Structure formats: C-alpha cells, structure tokens
# Entry
Amino acid sequence: MFENVVLGRRCSDKDYKEQAPLLRMKLFEAQRQCIERRIPLLVTIAGIDGSGRGAVVNLLSEWMDNKYVHNHVFWMETDEERERPLDWRYWRRLPAAGTVGVFFGGWYGPAIRRFCTGDMSELEFNARMHHYRGLEESLAASGMAMAKIWLHLDGKEHARRLKKRLEHKEDRHFTPYDKKSSEQYGALADAAASAITMTDRACAPWTVVDAADANYRNLSVARAVIAAVDRAVAEQEAKKAGTKEKITQEYVVSTLDAIDLSAKADGDTYAKELEELQTELRELSYRAYRKDISSTLVFEGWDAAGKGGCIRRLMAGIDARISRAIPIGSPSDEELAHHYLWRFWRHIPRAGFVTVYDRSWYGRVLVERVEGLTAQEDWSRAYSEINLFEEQLIGQGNILMKFWLHLSPEEQLRRFHEREQTPWKRHKLTPEDWRNRERWPDYVRAADEMFLRTSTSYAPWHIIPSEDKKYARLSVLRAYRDQLKRALKHAEDKKKQGRDKK
# Structure
C-alpha cells in the first residue's frame, strides 16, 4: 500500500512560504463554515512513530481558531476508562457542533499497535476495524466531518528517527507500546495497511501522507482537513435540497396486541414477595459489584404505565452507593450539539455499578419519530446505531435489560384522571401526555418496528403487562434477579475454565 506514498516528495522552503499562508486562510475559512453550519469536525492524526504527529497537532491548533479546537491523546488508559466499554473514552470526547476534535491516534492507534506486537489476535483486530467502520458511517450520517490522516515514513527514515528519539527520551514522550511497535516497523506498516483498507470509506476516507519532509507533510494535512469540511458542507447542502416523501402506513396488528393484560399480583402476598425480591437483589447486585459486572437497565413504555414506581422498588433493592437512576428528558443545548448517543455514553456505569434509565436512547425511534423531531433518514439509521451501541454495553459479561411497560388505553385514561384529582400526583400529568395519547396508533407502529429491529439475542426486549402496577413491579424485579444469577454463574464458569487450563 505505502510504496506509492514514500516517493521522497518535498516542498522547498520558498514554495512553503508562498503556499502556507494561502492554505492557512482556506483552513480558517473551512473552520468558519463548520461554526456557522454547526458541523462537528473530527481530525484523526495517526501514523508511524517519529512521523511528526505531535507537530501536526500543534500546527492545526496554530492555524485554526484554537478556542474551538480540542486536542485529545489516548496514550494511557485510565482506571475510569478500563471500567467502562471500550468506546466510552472516545465518545465522551467527540466534538460538539461547530467545534474541532483532534484525536492523536484516535481509536486506530492502540488497536494497530497491539495487533502489530501480537497483543491482539487477527480475528479481534478485524472485528475492531469492522466496528470502527460502522461507527464512522454513523457519525458521518449524523453530519460530522471526518479527516483521517496517516503519516508515513519508509523503513530507513523511520530507523534514523527512532535512533534520534531514543537518544532524547528525556524530552520525548515514549510509551511502552511506542518502543515495542517501533522495533517492528514491518509489522506496524502491515497492520496500518490492513486498518486503512478495511476502514477507508467515501464518508470517512483516509489520507496517507509522506511525512519525511515537514513542509510537504504540513500542506498535505491542511488540504485533507479542508477536503473533509468540503465533503460535509456538500452533503449538508444536498440534504437541504432533497425532497422527503412522507410515508403513510395503515395500522396493522401489533406485537403489543398479543400481550395479556389480565395478569395481577396477589394482593395478600405482594408486600412479602417484594421484600424478599429486594433482599435477594441486594445480595446479588453486591456480588456482581465485587466481580465487576455492571448493569444498564432501560425503562420505556406508555405514559402513566408505572415506570417510576418500578424504578423506585428496584432501586430500593440495590445499594445506593453503587447505583443511580438517570431521568431522560428533552436534550440540553450541549447535548443537541453532539451525536444523539453522546449524552447516554456519558452515564455508562463503571464496572460493577448499576445505571437505570427512565426513558432512553429509544426516544430517537419513538417520540422523535412520531412527533417529526427527527428526519426519517436519521431515525431509520438509528436502529443499527443502537444495536452497535448496545453490543458495546454488554462487553465483558455486563448486563443490559430493556423493559417496555404496557397497559391499555382505557387504563391509561383512568390513571390520567386519577392524577388530575390527586394533589401530589397532579404534577405528573402534562399537556404533552394528552397529546401523546391522541397519537396512540402512531406510537404503536413505532414501538412495533423498534421491537422488530432492536430486540436482539444479546439485548432482547421484555414487554411487561402493567395493567396491574404491583404485577409489573414484581415482574421487573424477578427478571433482573434471574439475569443477575445467569451473569454471576457465567462469570464463575469462566473463572473455573481458566483454572482448569492452568
């Protein structure tokens, strides 16, 4: 791959002095376009050790308005990052609308270096690249501009610079992986070539730059960033010019129609069974905490279906020091400036902790779809984005449970009237609740497609009959208890297998 890159391209100091100011102005203009059009710009600077990645990052901060430029380095993984899914450390640093995020190495750097040093299998590496390709397609479709730049050196020049770097280790940052990968130039180049081949897409293309000459390198990087912004602007204009056809659907029999709503809890034994379940959950969740098994519980369903009551009874059975509930409402200005999944990545639990979402990322394909708050192309794309996100959440044996609380329109109306007449419940009823009720068939269609496209083998939906609140509460606690038992048994079996291998 790199034979046609390292051809000794150079730019004389004279030419550089002529071209650099013009490119700098174009780069500044591209950044201004991002700010005015609210386009987030992600620049990934990766490359061979000694190729000038740090100098390029500094150059971008100098040539652009650095008030809106945020540089991020992923050299060392923190304890906080190790206790969460792999992508968490990247998602929380993605640029907001109108800002620039410069990733030193990005998600590619660690994977390429681990693969070339033998610390990652080919199967895992390929799976990781496939995942990043999907992630970048999702980010590009959401309107993010992406410039991915690989700075390359030939073996001879790399060896010369490595020797110089080793002589000045005191003032050059040199991680253990730097040294290991630097000593295996061929393997590093091969790993990079594989990564570039697998993740080079029209929406997020790679630019491979001969970095031997600093002048040529700097100009090439600036052009690549400008081109990325131009692509995003053109895509934005195309979307504005395009016409969207409104698709109408007839009401069809729904998955929800098959749910038996007649189930009721035994009023005489309810309190005792609830207490027993909470006691059991307290013990199991603490055992999961000790084994670093985190839990993410999602509650969706109809207004007045009893989500809050279920969550309160559930949280009463978990140590408050390791759990928290996140109510999801309308996104803030900061959240609107990012990809819609960004605000949920912020709250992903650490290893062993429990996070409960009252409403969730499924708002994208429910309320945002039904109320026309999101374009069809965006909510249609969200199903695959959500599945990819949830696949990350269940890594390392973590638990993800999704509950939909279901009730009849008649019971919902009764509860609405009850809220109106009860002073301490009146605040729960809003004009939005009445408006949502009027669009019940639309929400049924949206929920049905959501179940069809996001109830996966690793994250199935649990539809809980909630005509009787007590029955729903016990059902949720039982389901979580059983899942905790399965996760703990799986962890124990895995540990036993490890001992047997030794």
Notes: The longest helix spans residues 469-501.
